[in-house]
Design a protein that fits this description.
The chain is mainly alpha-helical. Helices cover 70% and strands 4% of the residues. 4% of the residues are buried. The chain binds zinc ion (ZN).
Length: 155
């Protein structure tokens, strides 16, 4: 009987994991959408800077640095936001980039498989916008741990 119980448990776990993957995928797409919005905003800023510089050069004026600098700051700000979103995507995919060579690694890898560099530990993933779905994902992880413990006890 225990065999069948285990089978049932495994099937429901698979279902939950698949569901978790679907949630993660939609979350990933959402973040990618935000990134592409930010990239468009950056392009707009480049355009605005170019226009400011062109108009002033055309009229024989000195380029007003303050205005250009403030637009450059906005671009840097957008770029920072993009790197944060890219980190969030890596966290959702449960991968990380090697701190030394940039190779994509499992989130819990202690060393890089390519260059061997020791990796800093990754904090637990939190999806801020949809807390309910995050809870569901955490439950799956807890179940997996319990099952592993059971298997160890039997051996
Ligand atoms: Zn590496």
């Amino acid at each position: 009987m225990e065999f069948f119980n285990k089978l049932g448990k495994k099937a429901s776990q698979t279902y939950q994991v698949t569901k978790e993957k679907a949630v993660n995928l939609s979350e990933e797409l959402k973040l990618k959408g935000k990134i592409s919005d930010l990239k468009n905003k950056i392009e707009d800023k480049y355009y605005e800077i170019g226009k400011i510089v062109y108009n002033e050069v055309k009229d024989g004026k000195d380029v007003s640095k303050d205005e250009v600098i403030s637009k450059c700051d906005e671009i840097s700000n957008f770029k920072d936001q993009i790197s944060k979103l890219e980190m969030d995507i890596l966290a959702i995919k449960k991968v990380k980039k090697c701190s030394k060579c940039g190779e994509e690694l499992e989130a819990d890898a202690a060393f890089c498989s390519k260059c061997g560099a020791e990796q800093p530990k990754v904090e637990k993933i939190e999806i801020k916008e949809e807390p309910e779905q995050t809870k569901e994902a955490e439950v799956v992880e807890i179940n997996n741990v319990e099952e592993k413990n059971e298997e160890n006890n039997e051996n």
